[in-house]
Amino acid sequence: MSVFHIRLIRALRSAATAFPRARSGQVAVTFALVTLPVMFATAAAVDYGRRNAAKTQLDTALDGAVLAVMSQKTNTIPTTALQNMETQFRTEAAKVPGVTVTAFTPGTPVNSTSTLSLTASYTATVKTSLASMMQIPAMPINGTSSATRNISQYINYYLLLDNSPSMGLAATDADVRNMKIATNGCAFACHQHTFDKNGNITGDDRNDFYHVALKNNIKLRIQVLRDAVSALVDRANASMLLPQQFQMEMWTFNDTYTQTKLQAMTPTLNDIKNATPNIDIAYAYYNQSDNQTDFERAIARMNATIPDSGNGLTSDKPIRFLFLVTDGVEDTGGTVTNQSAGFQYQSNRFIGPLSPSTCTALKNRNIKIGIIYTQYLPLYDNSFYNSYVKPYEAQIGPSLKACASDGLYFPVASGGDITDAMLKLFATTLASVRLSN
């Protein structure tokens, strides 16, 4: 029981015991004695109401001060932030009539592996008016406020984009139909050079199927891929909770020797967006061989390029993701790990699904792998496809899924939305980081 309540009870008891002894007093005196306890009770009620109103205002001020700290874009709470929290609270408390803050206690911030918590408390008094007649000049107030939020982690994204000739496939079923009409039966927009009689490149072949697609406004998978990367940048910019929380680097790859860094790691994500026009289909070789999808060399290069993944709590130790976008068919002139999974076509060409073991070295360094499988279009009217791809086509997706980290595999059927898959992959990476940390 508070001092205020004890004094009030004593005053009421004193008035009540005095009343019977005042038998010889006048009516006015008797009335005053009768009403005195009522006046004391009324005074107590008024001041108690003022006390509760003041507490509500102080609690609101404390909540605001704590939330101001917790809303800052940082994973740590420096001493200056705690000092500012106290200053903000005391400034707001000074606006409450009759209140004196006697103490303010900022708790020590608590960092777990996934959350940040902060608690603060205060004690204060509020001056009484009528209750002061009962020698109760002030009433005590105290309050506590706590807040907890998820820690936001720093993430580096490495985009590895398949730009081999097969990404020249028309993007939708309607585009495939239009492409076949425009080319008399071919759904792929082969990009080719012109050559002189000695085999030297002289320029672009303006009559190749790539230019046929452009002239007929037929959208290709490579164009959809550009759109998807642009959308990824926009979503990442909008999702940042820390300054420069996300950084990106972008590569394209095709054959054993051609792997191009289109944009080095940058915290300015619009640099990636500005580089998307450079995502284009690789040229077909002079001899028209199509062995231009070399996963093993490309992923090995990324393993040598990407540092070990960190815990993401600071910008110098980001969590690292590799995003691989591909149609999943390895078609290389080099040797491969899982030679028996596909076909050795001639002495210098292997065709087959990706070997999941190719991704092991990255995973062993805690680098998470996200894969968008732009599903390879079955071409059952093509004898080469029927001989060298169809026998293992059912293994393409499962092999890519086995390469991807858990939950980070997104297949996109012909005509499907690559942009939607890219955004889902990005959202899933953020969710996986929060769950795993």
Task: Explain how this protein is built.
With 437 residues, this protein is of the alpha/beta class. The chain is built from twelve helices and 15 strands. The strands form four sheets. It has a six-stranded mixed sheet with strand order 9-8-5-10-14-15, with helices on both faces. Strands 1, 2, 3 and 4 form a four-stranded antiparallel sheet that branches. A hairpin with a 5-residue loop joins strand 6 (193-195) and strand 7 (201-204). Helix 1 packs antiparallel against helix 2. The longest helix has 44 residues, at 27-70. It is elongated and about 110 Å long. The relative contact order is 0.10. The model has no long low-confidence stretch (mean pLDDT 82). It comes from Methylobacterium oryzae. Pfam families: Tad. InterPro entries: Tad_N, vWFA_dom_sf. This is Putative Flp pilus-assembly TadG-like N-terminal domain-containing protein. Residues 25-70 form the Putative Flp pilus-assembly TadG-like N-terminal domain.
